[in-house]
User: Fold these one by one.
Assistant:
Number 1:
Amino acid sequence: MILVSACLAGVKTRYDGESRDNTAVMRLIAERKAMPLCPEVLGGRGIPREPVEIVGGDGEDVLDGTAKVLDKNGKDYTSEILDGVNEFIRALKRFNADTVILKSKSPTCGMGKIYDGTFKGNLVDGDGVLTAALKREGIRLYNENNCDIIFPDMKAK
């Protein structure tokens, strides 16, 4: 079983109430090889919701307690994000999954690039909170831009 960011599977779980459908991910779901989950929703955040960014570092720093996940008004959502990450990891273990496909740039799911915490659309090197936690667990990680590497017959949209 592969766990995937729900927004890539056509589920409208993004902060703006939309999805970012990905052909390869949706095919995995249809073939019952993958299951969609949204860590932010698992943590109790609604749909739609205020967008958040990591302020003061990246996902590793959030896990270490030296950075926070805030909205543009400074409201702290770190606890909800961490709750969702923990629920996602519980599901991962329950389903014995060893591979996860995540949405890029997200403060939770982003892999390699995330927004810089200024809410100005600037990307910086770093991982989201879930990605950082999954790396600590030794999980194979992909995003919508490279998941076709593991499934060469499925080209990402």
Number 2:
Amino acid sequence: MISIDEFNGIYRQYVDAVFRVTLRAVGRREIAEEITNEVFLTLYQNGDSLTTEQLPAWLFTVAKRRAADYWRRWYVEERWQSEERPSPETVTPELSLEDLLAKCTSLKPVHRACIVLRFVQGMSRAEIAAQTGLNELQVKGHLQYALKLLRDALTTRRPASPPAEEMAADA
């Protein structure tokens, strides 16, 4: 590794230029600052193998490559986020809430009451707490646990495809 004094001198001399290059490449100040920091950290770790003639070109090359890496990651994330996913409004439920509550035998009466008051009656947690005599934190916990049980009931009880007997009977 290069000495601290050598590194500080190089940093003072080139930090503004490297920052300008990265800012121009990515267009966001906070990202350009991170990339500039990464460039100089890489220099500190690998500076022994560089000569003073190679230094400016090496710094700018590393900065441009890190900016390109940033854009690659950004495009992958953007593509992943824009993939077709059904929105909650377009998904039609196969079961009503009442049917789902009837099928989920693991729910206790307090869970059922909280779910019905919240999603059928449209009450807030504070209103449910006043109605049931629970505190808001208890209501929140009962709702979270009840929703988990309902999700589990949906995923374990719904077959991936109709059984073979049903398909044969339909034919």
Number 3:
Amino acid sequence: MTLSKFLLGVFVLVTGIALTAPASASQFGRVGLDYLVAENETIVVGEVRETYSYWNAPGTFILTDAKIVVSEVLKGDRHLREVTVTLPGGSVDELSTVVVGGAELKPGSSYLLFLHRGDLPGAPGVQMVRDHIQGVFELKASENGLRAVSQASADTLLPDASGVTEAPGGKRGLRLEAMKETVRELTAHGRQEVK
């Protein structure tokens, strides 16, 4: 790693901390399932097989690719069996870049993901989680089956137009089957919202 990359990484990290401190100040406006369904091209359920962090093409920012085996497509190409999702941040050698409020995808974990093709620094046209933590629902076992819990459920969100501040499903999340049905309905009709 060159000294300039190291210094750039330190600058990005320090700037990120300065812009977001205190942590409670890193707030996003709450979005509901209707928005997530309407504004994202691809919605999948899948398991992260592996992640790989690297410097972007110009060598100015660390990105992480997560390879996901798709078990179900709720919106988008029905033949999709694997997708690579690119996230801002990650660790290369001794340097880490952390994006406050950024989505996290861990190998071996399963998720319901809202994906959109877009541009990240030095990486145009990648599949990404545009809505950061609000676009990732981790699948967790419960006594009544799997639940989809938003990564935003632990954060404070700014109220939406209805005054709601909790991520869809709140801290307990939504039953996965019920959430998938709602996503299908919203995809077909584009009008309902579940809070």
Number 4:
Amino acid sequence: MDFATTDLVFAIGHHLLIFALAGVLAFEIAVLRAGLTARDIGRLGRVDLWYGLLAAAIVIVGFSRVIFAAKGWAYYSANVFFWTKIATFALVGILSIWPTMAIMGWRRTLKREPAFLPGQPSIARIRRFLWAEALLFIPILACAAAMARGYGELAA
């Protein structure tokens, strides 16, 4: 595979993974609401696993793209928008810990107590984390757009 094709494959893969992650996050926000059922909690647990797998794949493909594709490490490592994008994605990852832990806890409790359902305050708190994650996609996309247009080079 030639260099341009490698770059294209990494870019397509990276974008598809990001859209998939956004879809999973949208699913979680839609399902985690008042009226949550035991079946919903099971589905949230399975989908949340995909969230983690997709996030890991985004990091792997993204850094592969940085290292092996068109602009290379020298460009990205000296770009303030790259580091802001990485920091923001890391913040999304940190915020995702709370929903994951809550869903895992709900699933464990549900196994012990089949009638268990989380209360509205707990659901509302976890929804706030999910919405915060979703809103952080905005600066991530803004940073990506700025980098693609050559903005953000740190002074040498």
